[in-house]
Amino acid sequence: MKIEHIAMYVNDLEAARDFFIKYLGATSNDGYHNADTGFRSYFVSFDDGARIEIMNKPKMDDASKSLNRTGYAHIAFSVGSSKEVDRLTRLLSEDGFEVISGPRTTGDGYYESCIVAIEKNQIEITV
Q: How does pLDDT run across 7-65, given as a tens digit for each residue?
């Protein structure tokens, strides 16, 4: 069994798509729009076959996002090396994203950093 894709609702569909493309090397489909419901989505795909569906529809609830909440906590991306973790973390910081930890080696041996991005959702960058 494998996870087919992960989905997340966002307010700014194009900004979320552009984040995944610019910083994490994703490609995107042309998008989908249901004119009857107003639902829109893109699938962004990564080299290893992983996919994220980013979605938007009218009248979504946009509750406050605490980093210490129940539910899905973050999406982790393996970028292949500690140098790339450092480089990407630096770039994201320079581009105005909040780095909340790292780069560092965690107690369980991961070299990682954590960024708040895409409408206050956490992204982990690891080797």
A: 999 999 999 999 999 999 999 999 999 999 999 999 999 998 999 999 999 988 877 77
* Residue 75: closest CA among 117, 22, 31: 117
Q: Which two tokens stand for residue 106?
A: 């965690």
Within the chain, all domains assigned CATH 3.10.180.10 are found at 6-56, 74-126
Amino acid at 63: A
Asked whether 21 and 44 are in contact (CB, 8 A), the reply is yes
Q: Of 2.30.30.100, 3.10.180.10, 3.40.190.10, 2.60.40.1080, which CATH number belongs to 74-126? A: 3.10.180.10
Q: Name which of 120, 121, 84, 80 is nearest 102 in CA terms.
A: 84
Q: Are 72 and 122 in contact (CB under 8 A)?
A: no
Q: Rg of the chain's alpha carbons, rounded to an integer?
A: 15
